[in-house]
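Wed. Picked up where I left off yesterday with Probable alpha-L-glutamate ligase. The coffee machine is broken again, so keeping this brief.
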Amino acid sequence: MNDDAPMPDLIRFGWEEWVSLPDLGLPALKAKVDTGARTSALHAYDIETFGPANAPKVRFTIHPVPGRDDLIIPCSARIVDRRTVTSSNGESEQRYVIASTLRVGDDSWRIELTLTNRDRMNSRMLLGREALKDHISIVATDRFCQPELSYDVYSSKQVRTAAPNRSLRIAVLSREDNYSTRRLVEEGEKRGHTVEVIDTTRCYMAINAMAPEVHYDGARLPRYDAVIPRIGSSVTAYGTAVIRQFETIGTHCINGSEGITASRDKLHAHQLMARHKIGMPNTAFASSPKDTDSLMRLVGTAPLIVKLLESTQGKGVVLAETKKAAQSVIDAFRGLRANFLVQDFVKEAAGEDIRCLVVGGKVVASMKRTGAEGDFRSNLHRGGSAKVVRISKEERDTAIRAAKAFKLNLAGVDLLRSEAGPKVLEVNSSPGLEGIETASKKNIAGLLYDHIETNVRPAPVRRRKLG
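Structure written out below (tokens, as returned):
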């Protein structure tokens, strides 16, 4: 040790002090100082391990304010050890050990903490001797020698952004090993989250009022912080039922069952957009074959688009260039007992549409899609091409309003540029990421995780003053 080095200022601690654990999103805690205990301890319940075996993590929840069981802060951290701790009354307990930054006044340093339920204790944290630096002086007869904090901080917006590095456990509901699913897993794991791909059709549900559950491959699924639905059109009904079950449990679902259901039914979708006064091509629907001519007159003159209600990726969409051709297509669809819409063909769009990717109520990227030569459909799955495009304020606002109408946090809104302004063709609740990421050169998966990390905060803002 250098004899000329200045000695650190002496820090006075009473037997109880206000501290914060910023890594865990806990801006104010009362800690009891106990030099008789070796390791510090933090109140925790619903303790659950997750993550890979070579880098295990633990997540838990905490009531930071004694007597306020309605105020819940979720936390997570890397497990650094698991050890047996013997309490003052001689009881031994196996506890997970984590590390966190301790902040007291203007000073901060790293400490280790064991996790245990301290519900019956007045102090949510115990500060053991290993956490006390050499230049801390304990004044056993005093309290709060360091600056005092307040539980009122949990009523502020600070608590929502206090733990930006919290690891989450996320489920991607997908039956396909495609680009979008792989990107969601890759990006989530890069951020330190645990991301699990769940085959929607292999889920089954325990439906009851007291303990609704989702099971998978013979076991109950763990508690997820968020679910990202990637529900295929062929399993929409069962997939949305699984999502409703997660909603019943209280899991944060990026897109809800209601919005996915509405987006998959073309008739429902157009009625919903009409209710919200969102521009779209003139559209008509009828059941009786006797109404064919009237149906076509409602839309306009040929050419017309005839579209199956559950069409996806351009399948089941036909361009009828003459009135006679339209009648033939309609008769054919009716012969198959298929439900369909008839729409005006927007000639000025010239086989192009614009895909706006909306995340959390913002258009984060947009691309212009052009159909393959001789094909009026611009879907990339049908050989179309895409390039980044600059959209107008009206187009941006229309895309945002459309996603909001369906209550979707992630949506691909397809627009046509017409002489009367933007017209929405479709709102996709499971938009592919490959085309939009390639065209825009943006990390769309990352922007989605930004939204998840900001919004997966089960601790609500409390308005009444805390004691």
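Quick read: Confidence is low (pLDDT under 50) at residues 458-467.
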